[in-house]
Amino acid sequence: MIFMHSNIDFINTPVVDVVNRIILDAARSGASDIHFDHFDNCLKVRIRIDGILNDYADIPNDVKNNIITRIKILSGMNITETRLPQDGAIKTELGGLDLDMRVSSLPTKKGEKIVIRILDYSRSLKGIEYLCFSEENYKKILKMIAEPNGIILVTGATGSGKSTTVYSFLQKLNVKGVNLITVEDPVEMDIEGINQVQVNSDIGLDFATVLRSVLRQDPNIIMIGEIRDSETAQIAVRASITGHLVLSTLHTNNSLTTIERLLDMEVERYLLASALSGIVSQKLARKLCDKCKKVRDTTTYEKEMFKRFLNMDVNQIYDAVGCPHCSGGYRGRIALQEVLLISPDIRDAINARVSKSELRRLVYAGDVITLLQDGLYKVMAGFTSISEVIKLTEADDEVNAEENIKCLLEKKTQ
Question: Strand 195-198 to strand 180-184: parallel, antiparallel, or no bridges (unpaired)?
Answer without folding.
Answer: parallel
